[in-house]
Amino acid sequence: MRVLFLGDVLGRSGREAIYQRMPKLRAELGLDFVVVNGENAAGGFGITGKLCAEFYAAGVDCITGGNHSWDQREVMQYIPTDPKLLRPINFPPGTPGAGFNVYRDAKGRRILVLNVLCRLFMDALDDPFAAVAEVLDAHKLKRDCDFILIDVHGEATSEKQSVGHFADGRASMVVGSHSHVPTADGWILPGGTAYQTDAGMCGDYDSIIGMKKESAMQRFITKLPGERFTASEGEATLCGVFVESDDATGLATHIAPLRIGGRLAQAWPLSRPIAAVAE
Ligand SMILES: [Fe+2]
Ligand SMILES: [Fe+2]
Questions:
Q1: CA of residue 92 to ligand 1 center, whole Å
Q2: What is residue 191's three-state secondary structure?
Q3: Distance from C-alpha of 269 to C-alpha of 250, rounded to nearest angstrom
Q4: How far apart are the C-alpha atoms of 43 and 149, rounded to whole Å?
Q5: Cβ neighbours of residue 84 under 8 Å, at least 6 residues apart?
């Protein structure tokens, strides 16, 4: 299977890049399933049902969340109605929505997507490792699903790497979100799980992690509260991680970064588009 995960979509600039590029990306990469992290889709803060519908119309199959999942209050009523919108699994019992779900691609293959929140330098939630273990114990690759993707949403690279090794051999892909900066450590772990510490954001990089740089810098320089952060509006770089898996094992055979548009150095995960290979 070919799966693409796109990191935190930041405001209008990130959304529009996805709407414009996704149909072509799906074709050129031969994608079977696309997951995006949507915690910053609404002007940097949360997501709404209307934005979810726009993502699905563009060709997104599943949307994950993070510490910003609840920034738009209306989503608390919306999330139980939308099985394709996830929030981190380790919120306390009784939190609306789900932290994982199993989906099907066009060929009927089962994809489990799990969203988990780290604890270091973040508001502490329930134990992420116990939450991941519970799902992986109940859902084995090939027995119960054909592909398992874990979006590990966290600040500390060490904690995210620990989740990667913890799930190695039991998930197809563990990819980080939240830092809004792509890391260069994409590789296949010894047990066969594709891993990258952070996918990076889909947003304007001429910014401070997607927000207008002037007000964000001022807050560091002066230590005064300053004006409210607003999303930077320049052209977005779409940042993601592409993984190909072996249908016989559900484990990864290829991982590569994707970066297109905007400011960052560009990266295309295949040597040529699939369409060109077929010719
Ligand atoms: Fe984020
Ligand atoms: Fe976050």
A1: 21
A2: coil
A3: 20
A4: 26
A5: 52, 56, 61, 62, 63, 101, 103
| Pairwise CA distance, residues 99 & 134, whole Å | 12
Q: Which ligand has an atom closest to residue 88 CA?
A: 2
Ligand 1 center to 180 CA (angstroms): 6
User: One of 68, 139, 178, 180 is an active-site residue; which one?
Assistant: 68
Ligand nearest to the CA of 7: 1
- The pLDDT confidence band at residue 224, using thresholds 50, 70 and 90, is confident
Query: Is 68 annotated in the active site?
Result: yes
Strand partners, 62: 35
What DSSP line would sit under 196-254, residue for residue?
A: ES----BB-SSSBTTB-HHHHHHHHHH-S--SPP-B--SPPBEEEEEEEE-TTT--EEE
Å from CA of 57 to ligand 1 middle: 22
The percent of residues above 90 in pLDDT, for the chain, comes to: 94
Give, in order, the Cα–Cα distances in Å from 264 to each of 18, 189, 245: 16, 26, 27
Looking at residue 279, what is its pLDDT?
44
The CA distance from 104 to 18, in Å, is: 22
- Ligand number, closest to the Cα atom of 153: 2
pTM of the model: 0.97
> CA geometry: angle at 41 spanning 27 and 102, to 5°?
60
Bridge partners of residue 3, in order along the sequence: 33, 243
**What is the 153 CA–ligand 2 centroid distance (Å)?**
6
Local confidence band at 276 (pLDDT 50, 70, 90 cut-offs): low
Find the 72 Cα to ligand 1 centroid distance in Å: 14
Mean pLDDT check: name the lowest of 186-200, 212-226, 238-252.
212-226
